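Hey all, quick one. A colleague (J.T.) asked me to put the D-malate job into the tracker so the inputs and the structure tokens live in one place instead of scattered across chat threads. No bug as far as I know, just bookkeeping. Sequence used:
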Amino acid sequence: MSDSISVNHSSGPEALAEAVTRNHVVVLVDVLRASSTIITALANGAFKIIPVPTVEEARERIYHYPNGFLAGERAAHPPAGFDYGNSPRSFLTTRIKGRPIILTTSNFTRTLGKPPDTATILVGAFLNIDHVAKTARYLSEKTAQPISVISAGSMHGVSTEDDFTSYQLIIRIEDPEGPPGYADIGDLARELLVSRHGSLLVRAGYEDDIYFCAQPNRYNLTPILQDGGFVPFSSDMKIPK
Ligand code: MLT
């Protein structure tokens, strides 16, 4: 076990707002699928992911980004006229290189809301579990602030797949050199598949997304919110206090 670090877990928009008010280093987890989509899009060269809470706002904001794409979902499917849905696999393309993406989703962007520029908000999922754990530790040590891992949750209440992912992430944050709390991708996929949202995605035809989102450490990248959009974290960035 390495040096002790203060890390806690909670869920939903109020918890996130409180952690931001307290200046915590926040990791927002929506494993199915918004966190996984943001990580994948940035890993495939997207310039910035701009989260907005509503479909209407996304349609308005796109006029400020002539080379941007509209992405997101409602009830798992892309809203009318959007370029992309919220399937992380659809961002495995060079088409998005250097392009901003306006993203709106049912839970992640609603839970995120519009935090102040002073907030330190990272995005976590299995795809970047070790990288985000190390980044959160680094920022916590640098700013002397605790870490809050926040499950995005769902409009229907708790979100077991986000809580499971948050729990696995906390194991990596608390003891980055120790063994992970899971055996393999099969372990993770099983847990995601039996969740309420996992079953909904299967029924909606997105079962392959679940296996994609269950891959631990596919990417060495941590999205961080900077000037209203998520970009890959780098240690030479100016970090809000
Ligand atoms: C959300 O933010 O609610 C989601 O990521 C939903 C989804 O695309 O499955």
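Adding what we noticed when we looked at it: The first strand starts at residue 7 and ends at 11. The domain at 7-225 is CATH 3.90.1560.10 (putative 2-phosphosulfolactate phosphatase).
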